[in-house]
Amino acid sequence: YCLSGHPTLPCNVLKFKSTTIMLDCGLDMTSTLNFLPLPLVQSPRLSKLPGWVLKDGSTFLDKELKECSGHVFVDSVPEFCLPETELLDLSTVDVILISNYHCMMALPYITECTGFTGTVYATEPTVQIGRLLMEELVNSIERVPKAQSASMWKNKEVQRLLPAPLKDAVEVSMWRKCYTMPEVNAALSKIQMVGYSQKIELFGAVQVTPLSSGYALGSSNWIIQSHYEKVSYVSGSSLLTTHPQPMDQTSLKNSDVLILTGLTQIPTANPDGMVGEFCSNLAMTVRNGGNVLVPCYPSGVIYDLLECLYQYIDSAGLSNVPFYFISPVANSSLEFSQIFAEWLCHNKQTKVYLPEPPFPHAELIQTNKLKHYPSIHGDFSNDFKQPCVVFTGHPSLRFGDVVHFMELWGKSSLNTVIFTEPDFSYLDALAPYQPLAMKCVYCPIDTRLNFIQVSKLLKEVQPLHVVCPEQYTQPPPTQSHRTDLMIDCQPPPMSYRRAEVLTLPYKRRYEKIEIMPDLADSLVPLEIKPGISLATVSAMLHTKDNKHVLQLPPKPPQAPASKKRKRVSDDVPEGKPPKPLLSGSIPVEQFVQTLEKHGFSDVKVEDTAKGHIVLLQEAETLIQLEEDSTHIICDNDEPLRAKLRDLVLKFLQKF
Amino acid sequence: AAGALDVIFTLQGDPSLFVAAAARRLLVHTLSLSLECEMSKAPGTRVCDWPLCAQMIIKHIEDSLQSSSISHIKQSLKLLAGLFGGCHAPWTEVLWLSVAKQVESFLVEESVQAPHLLVDLLLNMSRSPVFCDSEGNFWALVTSALEHLNPVQAGPLTVGILRLHKCPQDVRIQAVTVLLQPMDCILRAASQPLEYSGLLDESVTDPATVESLLSSKSSCASLLCQTLGHLEKLLSLSHLPVDLPCTSLLRSVVAILQFCNGLLIPASPLGSKISQTLIGCFRVQRAALDVLAVLSERKGCDIPVESFFDVLLSYLESPNTNPVVLKKSFQATSKWLVRLPEMSCFNSQWQITKILQDVFLVLQKRLCSPCWEVRDSSLEFLTILINGLRDQDGFRQTLFSSEVPRLTEDLLEDPESYVRASAVTAAGHLAYIAPESSVAGNQYNKENTVAKLQEIFSTDPEGFPRRAVISIFIKWLKKGYTALLQDTEQFVSKVIQTAERDFDWEVRLGGLELVEVFFVQTLCRLGRPKCHYAPFSPEFTSSVRHNESLQIFCRTKLFGFLFCSLCDCDRPVGQKACDILLAIRSSFYTSNSLKDSLDPEEVGHGIGWLQRTLRQGSLAQNFPTGSSQEVDFQDPESMLLALGTIDLEELHDDLNKSSDHVEKSPQSLLEDILATVGAIEENEADCY
């Protein structure tokens, strides 16, 4: 079941062997781009924007919609596009597996609003950093309460009249306001923390295991397997050497199905090149006396960026330029990153034993080159010096302290805003700030797998089937000639889209059953071919918690002393010895010779599609020999039938 | 003799390549010796008339060629190639006739065996007057080879043919056709039908083989790299005996570059396949940019498309460009930019300015790159541009209104010494063309650059930047950049004093070169003829100016530096100093006025001590560094005396004889290699 249309913020549900497993619950925040930014201090510019008027002059929407440089925005608290809730009853979901902290932002909506009673599994860094992201999100939205809330525009009839992109926005009725901190806490309390390669049994039916995916601290891919089937869920993985533990590829081998999501959103941008671009543009701006604004999440790529800058600033003569990191969770994020040693790449792990902080941002903080603040109020306003570099959220430019800096620095062409997060179109993000004098640089750094890496990965792990979002099965819409930017594998991948249900291409054929030792003891195997022995088993099948056990059948009841009462037990089958089973095949020529030896002189053989028919004309009898059955058809001549049956049985093995 | 020949035949198959090659050479020599020496008259036209030894060799070659063993066939082909390559006597034709049929049969086989050896053989033959002048069969064989070998195998043959000055025109045309086929295919795959006519006349070529090679992932890049490599080689020749269609070639190369960065929307299924293979292929990008660079030097090769510079700019701009590809993009761009003013399609100044503005915007960003290689190549690019375009007003204006000069100045403090060195060179060139500080709007202060360079020269801990500074100083002095130097004499004196203390011998050598330039310029300024070797007029040698120049040299402390350098532990420094002193002497003394009769020990002024010190050469630990020593290097009279009495010729000979610094013999080179890599058995065998 595909509940999200966003390939990098997936939310899928897998029904597998009587379990219902939700794979990630990403929150599509691109919907917020349709809203006006939430400024911390009132912005005269934004408050003066004209209301939107319909072509026919109707003004009934002018309170809800505002116009800015030719674009129309909803003047209300930003809302998010939730995963589908109608496709299946989400209260039946047994477990939710989270692959990384970006893919859990819809968790409170699912666990708190759908009757969900299951468990959520995620690694410790995922939970902790996920909490930080949620806290920052709630904080940035709640601290700017909005008096009004727009809903009229969502009316289907009204929406039709709106200009693009509002007109084309999907599922607007599903858009919801941000959750609250109590909801976040309640949702997070349902998470059970797991470690890489830890095997978790789900109701005895399947086993799930997180594996390192190399993308972010604690990010994981998941293996979901039974005794005979294996489904791998690959979401947000990276093969580059950045701070997290490298990706575990070998455990993905031998999958029946590999679900592939969370590939890079910018397949044409090489992250190394982009980091170079980031540094060059940053240096150029600062040297010209301008400020640099980097809208970012409080965790993830920012660690790598700070590390690159650490190496670069001295050489670029930027030692005296202050770097500010402003986020309600800035401090926790920087500190958390230093304590998750076991989740880091090898190089960083070894530093911990020296002992040294694994990330060099500790040194930047010590030397006062990097300063962090919970918000622009308080200490920051006292320390603030320009030119400077500010890292702050939110990358959508709709809420968070970034709104303030956009308003502050937008008018000067000396300043630059550098977009490093790939989740939002930078032009859409900038739309409500137009006209803008400040320079805009787009350096999206997305370390997730690109299509070349995917093709290598698939060659390496060789899954029988690949299942992926439909976006990955065709070139990007803006570059339709780039056929290299799609998944290329054999057999071709199966694709899914939002609100679609897909039947995965495997058949469950086997189930593992345990045989109790005393039952096994009683078996008498018969070798029918060298190396293959068969035995008939009469036993009782005991099934509990999806585990199947064959036990000795209960002993037959003692023969009653008197024949007066003959009781047939319903519960316990009678312990009659089973009829012997037959195996083998009947060679027609030899069979005919045998018949002739036994006095049947007029034997005639006809070939049929499935075998042979042996005709005994005189006796008006017919013997059908087929691969898996033999029929003797004779008219009311039981002795003849028995005789023929015995002749047939001579050719077969009994056990 | 037969036994000896058999041994040599066997040795052709020796596992050691050296032994096998020596055996082949020996057979070649034996054959030609037996034919040219043993026979008093010219060898007969039949092999059976030849000496026995020659017959045995020919027989061996024939047998090997007919054998089923591929290694024997290869040995014989190599032997034949060696024979025709080294021996151009008329009897080689007789030999050829006896093997021609067999060799021809190799070419028409289903899959050609040892194609590269056949190509070598044909090329060696084509250079021999015996065959290249022949009207008939040989060229038919070459034509057949061009037809039967696949494009990858035929590549080296086409290049070889196109370099020949004696070759039938139709063979040449066919070689061009084979060589250019991949480029033609690219052009057709990249453009809409009828848009361009392609490189070749369609009727001449059957593109099926090339198309199948280009549409396969494994062969596409290597075929293109090979073709581009061949083209680069050919286009770099100053006299190419054939006209290549440069404009179409340029279009094709641009199309390859567009395929490689995904900018080109393919016009055919073949184009889609090529595009898929080439996107991000650094190997092909590098090769294509090399060809693009050499094409800039071809006359009549005009820019075919408006977007030509857009393609180059996209490479310079893209963060995905690999550093080596970026360097090559810079090289190609600089070559084409330097040509811009003379190109007919870019006659509007506005267009040129626009391109330069775009280039400087990119350059600005690249100068701030965190990757030092990129900063370094950017600075080199800037230097090349200044050298090529400094006379263009538009260029200077655009340059100085950009941020580039300021960023270049910043890079003089780069932590990477190579970058500092390149920044020094670029800044030195910038200063040369910078407008006066007084000019309105000029933010570039060249006086700062001079001061900064002098600071680097005396304080930089690495040799490269200091070497770069001295080279720039020499350039400034040569070009008469006196406005910048203000007081040349003081400048030279300061540089000399810093240079003589430098630990880097190349810097000290640079200091001497500066002295040489200064010396020549001073004499010229005082009336010496421009030509270095022209005899001095008596007026000059005896004039007051004569005296004046001596005084200038003394004031700049030039003699102290020169005499000290004679004892430098690095021989090139000593040699240079000696050469300069000899030149100075010749300007003060005519050959017959030398005071040979005077004994240095007797003339006083410490000249005797100087002579003794100099004779000790670099062993002279106590060579004077200040004026408190026995000789006063700033005293004109002493110096004139020293020049006249010290036996500079003898010193010159000694310096040239000594071999402590540079040993040029191959044996010494091999010893050095062995000392570096370790004298293990395998290395010793290689060196042997």
UniProtKB/TrEMBL annotation, chain A:
The record's listing under InterPro entries reads: Beta_Casp, Integrator_9su, IntS9-like_C, Metallo-B-lactamas, RibonucZ/Hydroxyglut_hydro
Of the GO CC terms on this record, one is: integrator complex
Which Gene Ontology terms describe the biological processes this protein takes part in? negative regulation of transmembrane receptor protein serine/threonine kinase signaling pathway; regulation of cellular response to growth factor stimulus; RNA polymerase II transcription initiation surveillance; snRNA 3'-end processing
Localization, UniProt: Cytoplasm; Nucleus
Q: Name one Pfam family in it.
A: Beta-Casp
Q: Where is the Beta-Casp domain?
A: 302-430
Q: Could you confirm whether the keyword Protease appears in this record?
A: no
Per the annotation, which location comes first and is thus the protein's main one?
Answer: cytoplasm
Region: Disordered, residue numbers: 547-583
Homology family: Belongs to the metallo-beta-lactamase superfamily. RNA-metabolizing metallo-beta-lactamase-like family. INTS9 subfamily.
Record's keyword terms, sorted: Cytoplasm, Nucleus
Q: What is this protein called?
A: Integrator complex subunit 9
CDD domains, sorted: Int9-like_MBL-fold
Q: Where is the composition biased (Basic and acidic residues)?
A: 568-577
What organism does the UniProt record list as the source? Tinamus guttatus (White-throated tinamou)
TrEMBL record, chain B:
Indicate whether S-adenosyl-L-methionine appears among the record's keywords: no
Q: Where's it found, cell-wise?
A: Cytoplasm
Q: Name one GO biological process term.
A: DNA damage response
Cellular compartments per GO CC: cytoplasm; nucleus
Asked whether the UniProt record includes Cytoplasm among its keywords, one would answer: yes
Recorded superkingdom: Eukaryota
Per UniProt, the keywords (alphabetical) are: Cytoplasm
Which PANTHER family did the record assign? BRCA1-ASSOCIATED ATM ACTIVATOR 1
Q: What name does this protein carry?
A: BRCA1-associated ATM activator 1
**From which organism does this entry originate?**
Tinamus guttatus
